[in-house]
Each structure stands twice: as structure tokens, then as C-alpha cells.
Amino acid sequence: MSITKDQIIDAIAEMSVMDVVELVSAMEEKFGVSAAAAVVAGPAGAGEAAEEQTEFDVILKAAGGNKVATIKAVRSATGLGLKEAKALVDGAPAPIKEAASKEEAEELKKALEEAGAEVEVK
Description:
By secondary structure, the chain is an alpha+beta fold.
């Protein structure tokens, strides 16, 4: 006599949460697998393309040789006051703008690099 998948699912549905946890642990030991790995690998299909990134973070890595120009560029890009912009530049590496569009991130990177700063877009 064999048990169907539906019968197994019905039996699991009637179990308490603790019993299900013990069942999963026992199955992991018996078959030498991890339920966490199966969950992570499960949704990824072979034909799926990687989703294109739509939000970017602009990170100031270093102020560069012309710190004053970098502070001015940060102020114009962020709207911060002089003191806040100076503190941000002095605290490099630091995020300048988070969740920016690709175009906005590239424009900001270009402006900061023209001021002499070292910038990274993630």
C-alpha cells in the first residue's frame, strides 16, 4: 500500500507547528538536505533573466584634491547646508544619495568626479 502526496499533505496539515518542525529536521537528517537551501533555490528558474536594477546608491569614496569643489558639488546635489555638506565630505566614504534613478546617479557621479571626488555607484 502506498501513500499519495495528498494524504501526506493532509497529515501534515493536521500536525502542530512543533511536530512539523521536528518532521522537517528528521527529513533533513534522513536525506542530507537543508530546507533553507531548497527554498532559496526553488523559485529560480533556468529561463529567468536577472531583474534589472532600478535604484542606485551614490557613494562618495574620497573628497579628492579639491575638497572645496567637492563640498560645493555635494551641496548642490543634496541641498544640504555648508556645515552638513562639509561633514559628509569629511566623513567619506559616505552615501550621498540613495535609491536614485540610473540617470540621476550618473549625473551626480559625473558632477562629483568633475569636482575631483572619487565616487562609486552601487
